[in-house]
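Supplementary Text 2. Reproducibility record for the structural model of the 374-residue chain.

All settings were left at their defaults, and a single model was retained for analysis rather than an ensemble. We include the record here because the model underlies the residue-level annotations in Supplementary Table 4.
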Amino acid sequence: MTDGEEGKRPPHAANKKPGKAMALPMKADFQNVQLDLFQRFLCNTELEHDQLSNTFDLWDSVPRYSVSRQAMTKQRTEKGFLELLKIDFNYKRMFLKAIIQPARIEERDGTTQDYYPSANEELVEDALRKIATVQNNGYFDRQNYRSGVVFTLHMLRQELKKRGHTRSYQQIVLSLNILSGSVIELCAADGNNCEAFTRSAYFPSLTAVSRKKLIDDPHAKWVVQFHPLVTQSIDALTYRQFNYHQMMSHSTQLARWLHKQLSLKFTFASLVTPFEIRYSTIKRDSALLENYNPERKAVTALDNAWEELKAQKVLLAVKKQVVTGLRGKIDDVVYTLTPSPDFVAQMKAANKRQSLAVEKPPDSVGNSATAKRW
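Retained model, structure tokens:
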């Protein structure tokens, strides 16, 4: 935004989807207390600050990226269509259902194909959330109750590359279109009934400042609006800082999911207080283990993910107890996790940061890049 734009909302920018244009954020939306709290992290060095981001309790507990591109290819009809995707999961002992409507994308040859958001889109969302923690990139607009990020394709591509996930500009634009075109409904599951409580696109708005330069100019400005649950979390201070760089470095989507869930749920981590979790819980709530056959292959994939978390010094030890039924069939597996000293320190910092944000909000804004300044 330029100085001349302060105090007034600019006209609508060109948007990738007709009828979905939004007013660009005002300068005040980039400078407010809620945003400043979101962009501050409790850490000791600039390097540590660069490795941190935020994870959101409910939103990041929704299994919204569970279908691979390969699985989609098998599920599409001859015309390229996909059905509504329905996934049951549990959040804090509540039985919920996610209903995902795929995005319909026009390909370069003029044909159309449906896409569910998958691992590629998850990486893009995580990278954009990290970019939003940098001053003058993220915004929080209380008046219209929205939050999001201003970025360029070059900026987003560099962030993904920095974290080990290089993507082409074309791949990034496809992911952005999938995220803005896919709709997710969350509801409380009660037998055959479903009481909806939120329905929105993953990115309710995707706006580009100049339609002409989207393909030719990777430095053209884009504006994304985050899902309403992210906005709600920023407003209510229910997000938690976590080691985003470490999470992004994991080689599998399952390991990344486990890292986020531990960051949200293992808040009491200590070397003498282990964390117990079951294979059946992970299978239900991640929806990432559904396509393994036989069941032992899914357990092996989970075992490998735990080993990766140990190698990355998230966990110190993993104790495994297999529960078998008739003829040696696996009924469940109980995992007892011991955190690493590094992870314990990260959880303590996240707990302290959250308590400070609630108890002692800053007197001013604009110092988000300064470590341990409250």
